[in-house]
Write a structure and sequence with these properties.
single chain, 444 residues, mainly alpha, globular, Glycosyltransferase family 39 protein, pentosyltransferase activity, RgtA/B/C-like, transferase, cell membrane
Amino acid sequence: MINSAQPQGDVPSTFRYAASVVPVLLLGGLVVRLLFLWVGADVYYHGKSPYINNDTYSFTQSFYNLLEQGIYSFNLRNPEAAFGRLPGYPFFWGAHRLLVGRTYVYPAVAFTQILLDTGAIYLVYATTRALTHDLRAAWVSALLYAGYPFIIVWLTISGSEALGTFMTILAFWWLATRPVTKATAVGAGLLIGLAFMVREYLGILLLGAFFWVYQSKGLNWHFIRLSVLVAVGFLVVYVGWPIRNYLGQHKLVLVKTRTAGYDRYAEDVSTARQWIYGWTTEADPYLDGIAGLKPLPAFPAGVVGSPAEARQIQALIQRVRQCGTGFHSWRYAQMYPRPTNCNAELAAGFTALHDSYKQRHPWLYWFRVPLINLKRAFFKSQLQQGGAGKLSFILFGYRSALLLLGLWGRGCCAGTGASGPSCFSLALCICSCALASGTWKSAT
């Protein structure tokens, strides 16, 4: 780990209290996080539990069922739920359950996540200092993370966002501060394997590790050998999951099944959702309408290609409400009760609608919705409705300002001693942290 001594090449600081800056940032970050736990969470979550969201049940029940039934699954009635959650976060949560018991497990998990995230403030400082060799830039980075609201609001929740963010920052700290050797290459793979087990798409961090090796060794046999060691470290952690699935569940599942064990995401719903996401970013209102849970909104112009297609949609909706298992669960929040269903028929119908729209409007399909999603990811200005609107606007405005500041900083790198690869690594770290913390979606 980078120590408090000034590394070679650092931009020096003449600030009198330079040695106190990092401790003050850590203490301040801890106080802010504890204040959110004790005071702010109840305000932010509008009286709802600050410890639970829609994903909590599947994480916690997976461990409960393993502990009490000997089966790792969050829904014993659905065979695919055995593959629904990778074991990283359920076991992290379960360790607290074993230590403090059922009554105090949720506050204990929140407190541990706060401590980890406070440690992440230092890791951000150390990573930035190693990449930029600028003490002031490292202070600013740590300050921004210490007060970053889109991680703080997740710290009380029993869900994988907070732990995934910490694992991401820890992995990048390792890549930024460790020399590239055989041991550190294996270590990088192990860390990324653990991050993958917490949030599976953090496997993208392997690209950062390979770039780390390339930056040090160039494109040669040393690069190939050390990259293989990174992969070996990753596989040591990962390979147990598909082996467990094959030996214990008699099914080779590399990560998850398509429905991930959720009854409501059977193939009727998943194909309908794929069709809807071809022309809008807001699928739930239409899925609610198709299921009969709420009135069906009007379709945007161009979605329905012909009167025949309109009749096809109406026929599909009727069949959905008769024999679609996913839509039954969507509407009634319970499993489909009958032994037969028409999911294959519904999936074929919604797939035909999807293909029709893509063929008729290729430009809108490939660019309009993705660009809207990108805009919302960077500049979305609403988290919740009602009284939280102004607060949401401020928080998302703050995030947008940080993103713009990051782009400005990248431009400044071109005029400093910071290398292009270092700037690239820092940018990849920021994007990975955003993915890990779930900041692209609402915290409601």
